[in-house]
Specification:
The protein is mainly α and 428 residues long. The protein contains 17 helices and three strands. It has a three-stranded antiparallel beta sheet with strand order 1-3-2. α2 packs parallel to α4. The longest helix is centred in the middle third of the chain and has 40 residues.
Length: 428
Amino acid sequence: MSGLSANVLYVLVGTVLFGISAGLLGTFVVLRRQALIGDALAHAALPGICLAFLLSGGMKHPVFFICGAVVTGLLGSLAMRAIVRQSRIKEDTALGLVLSVFFGVGILLLTYIQHQPFGNQSGIDRFLFGQAAAIVGRDLWLFGGIAGMVICAVMVMYKELKVLVFDPDFARSIGLPLSRIDMIVLVLTVLVVTAGLQSVGVVLMAAMLVTPAVAARQWTDRLGAMLGYSAVFGALASMSGTGLSTLAPHMPTGPWIVVCATAIFALSLVMAPHRGIAPRWWRHRQTSHRIHEENTLRTLYRLVEDGRGENVSIAMMQQYRAISLRQGIQILARLERRGFVIPIGDRAAWHLTSAGLREAERLVRRHRLWEVYLSRYLQLGPGAVHAGAEDIEHILTPELEARLEAVLQHPAVDPHARKIPYATGEER
């Protein structure tokens, strides 16, 4: 039991360190629109692992595997850059070429190893899908060292990396050594990808490099916060995946980690405050309700202004605005809760309260001021200004309203010769 507990602890710590490293570097990969580079580097590392196994005489020491994977991973990345710079081939095409060629070579070498006398005992095929359970104490030094290098590099070069991501042209103009910085990031990415092969494998490595960063992007617009979120999400996915694989011992850890990372992304996609689907739907719904309520208040004001009586029914409102009976009831019920209208009798009619009248006058004032502006400065006829004014009245701020009135020199009537209500606080 103690041995099993130690093994679980090794796997947990190792995958968490990997998740933090992948989350931090994945942020820059995503922001630079290089999401496929992790996939390409992971596939490029496979032939290096196979060559290291063959050259070492069948030794399975992780140092040999890491060295081989780093060499071919760097060769793959340099090949991608050379293809892009020396030809007209686009970056995504170069990524696909390198990924397929290196992976094909890796599969050939893997097949060759499997046909050798010691091939069945090599365990090289585990790098395809990962085997986090094979992490031992000595591997933690490797994971910890890589995580430490990534964290130190991000802290020391934070400003330079920020400029590199968001404005590389400005970085060149101030003399930043972009090639050197880019190479450091590339080497660190190769190291993280190579170390992660033991946890999640070649096939799933790109997911761990991209998914936590994409999830973090849903929660913030600031680079520093995104780095923090991405590191936390990477660590959380690693912890959750390790825990689930422990509860289900016949399920591999790597795929569980990716599944957990995907779940975090899905939750972020739905629930993130500013970019999430649910908050955006709620804001749209609230805005739609506000616009309908403001249009209804303005309609009630028009009916009273036209002498149709102070008690207005939904049927009377339908003569001025296309709304259904059900929609009218819902809107008026919300206005009643806000104290802008009161029902008359058995809700057969509705009456504007003093607060509702003030709010309606404010909306009508903005609407008619904008109609004057469209008529006077854009030379639109009276029949063409209503639709434009109805769009702008809902977003016109008090500051813009005051500025608009000053530009128009305090008009008294709109293009339809209707009186423009006074602003709140003005003498009548």
